[in-house]
Amino acid sequence: MKRPEGFDAPAPPAAERPAPRSRAARPDAARRREAATAEPARASTPAAPAAPPRPARKRPPRPSASRVADAELRAAERARRRAEKHELKRFTRRARRRRIAWLGGIGVVVALVAMSIGAVYSPLLALRDIRVDGTTSLDPARIVDAVDGQLGTPLALLDQDALRDELGSFTLIRSYSTEILPPGTLIIHVVERAPVGVMVAGGAFDVVDAAGVVLGSVPQRPAGLPLIQVAEADVDSAAYRSVAEVLLAMPDALRGQVDTISASTRDDVTLTLAGSAQRVEWGAAEDSDHKARVLAALIAIHGGAGAGSYDVSAPGTAVFHED
Fold first, then answer.
1. Are 259 and 197 in contact (CB under 8 A)?
2. Where is it predominantly found (predicted)?
3. Per CATH, domain 125-192 is 3.40.1190.20
């Protein structure tokens, strides 16, 4: 194949090559040609639609320190008002409940007081029946007759002073107590005085109790009661109190065997036994319970013996001496 002429010609030396023209050195006509050539190429490629411009976001202005402090102060004020309002509601609710409770309690108390007063002063609770118990020597009807002046009086308004005066007229009453049984009953519990002996009074015998109160006077000495002999028959003396204490300490069976009991002082009580010539040196009234038991045991042993004396003044060494 025949190569074109000059294909294999050697390249000229570098010094002989023409220098390339720079883009800036190109003439204006060449630049215009290049622009005209590039314009159709650009026109042949459809251009993408341009995006609408975004509106610029305006950054809010930074608040100043004084405005921030004012906002915080307003928020704190609103929170304080809300807390005060809530606390006021809570306190008001609690006070309302407390007031309702107080008013309810006062109403109940007033109602109870009114009912009690109405019941006390009502004729339904007036005295209609009087009962007496505990009497042996006294006639209960006499006691009822003495206090029946208060029949029809409300139970709560019974005159206790008048009742004491009316019952005090009965010598045999040592003490009493009252019991009210609604709707209209009064019970009087009586404790009668018990005679412990007799004392000579002129040509009669006075029946006396342990306190020396004369329960009655009889022309003849009653059986079963010892004759009390003290100086000048003084029931207020220490000798009488010692005699009464000794008699009260004795069991009924032993007291029934005493014929006379005498004393001139508190410490020399002496007894004589009925139906025999035996006597008892009792001594003082102290330890009378023990002495009574010792004397009962000695009488059981020596009761059938002749005249003699029992010495129980020292109950630990009690003895019987024959005359």
1. no
2. membrane
3. no
Q: Both tokens of residue 156?
A: 């709560």
Please tell me the distance from the alpha carbon of residue 316 to that of residue 12, in angstroms, as a whole number: 176
Q: How far is CA 178 from CA 117, 165, 181, 288, in A?
A: 22, 14, 10, 34
Measured distance CA(117)–CA(112) in Å, rounded: 8
Asked if 308 and 278 touch (Cβ cutoff 8 Å), the reply is yes
CATH code for 195-322? 3.40.50.10960
Q: Which residues pair with 176 in a beta bridge?
A: 190
3-state secondary structure of 71: helix
Q: Mind listing the pLDDT tens digit for each residue in 89-142?
A: 777 877 778 888 888 889 888 888 887 777 667 778 889 999 999 999 899 999
Tell me whether residue 72 is exposed, middle or buried, using C-beta atoms within 10 angstroms of its C-beta: 0 to 12, 13 to 18, 19 or more: exposed
Q: How confident is the prediction for the chain on average, in pLDDT?
A: 82
Helix (H) or strand (E) holding 322: strand 319-322
Q: What is the pLDDT of residue 31?
A: 61
Vertex 308 angle, CA 303 and 310, to 5°: 70
Contact 208, 242 (CB under 8 A): no
Alpha carbons 44 and 154: distance in angstroms, whole number: 132
Of the candidates 160, 225, 223, the one whose C-alpha atom is nearest the C-alpha of residue 188 is 160
The helix/strand/coil state of 171 is: coil
Longest dimension (CA), the chain: 207
Q: Which amino acid is at 202?
A: G
Residue 150 carries which side chain, given as an amino acid letter? Answer: Q
Of 282, 208, 201, the residue nearest 240 (C-alpha)? 208
